[in-house]
Amino acid sequence: MVRLARVLWPSWCSGRPVPDDAGLLVRGVLDAIALQHPKADDLLDFCRAENARIEAFCAENDLIGLTDEPLEIQWTRSSCAPSVARC
Predict the structure, then answer these.
(1) Which of 11, 54, 63, 83 stands the most exposed, by the fewest C-beta atoms within 10 Å?
(2) Are the beta carbons of 29 and 12 closer than 8 angstroms?
(3) What DSSP line would sit under 4-47, residue for residue?
(4) What stretch of H or E contains 74?
(5) Quick check: 81 and 75 in contact, CB under 8 A?
(6) How far apart are CA 25 and CA 16, in angstroms?
(7) Residue range 15-71, pLDDT digits in tens
(8) What residues contact residue 41 under an 8 Å CB cut-off, 6+ apart?
(9) CB 34 within 8 A of CB 58
(10) CA angle in degrees (0–180, nearest 5) for 42-27-19
């Protein structure tokens, strides 16, 4: 993760000095990414809406055939629900 964080730092944390501490480096990149991503409670709705947007784009542009059965997006285990801290 440290290697990836060093590569991602300029894109996600531009203008800020790169920390010498590996933990601060990784945490800084993860925190920056988290600001632009949905919160856990909103993740399922976000994924469903994003899937609908992608399907509409594919259909409108005749890119690929789409199944008649809609894709169902759901939590796979109760332990992965947003109310639980870790999956």
Answers:
(1) 83
(2) yes
(3) HHHHHHHHHSTTSPPPSSHHHHHHHHHHHHHHTS--HHHHHHHH
(4) none
(5) yes
(6) 11
(7) 999 999 999 999 999 999 999 888 888 999 999 999 999 999 999 999 998 888 888
(8) 82
(9) no
(10) 150
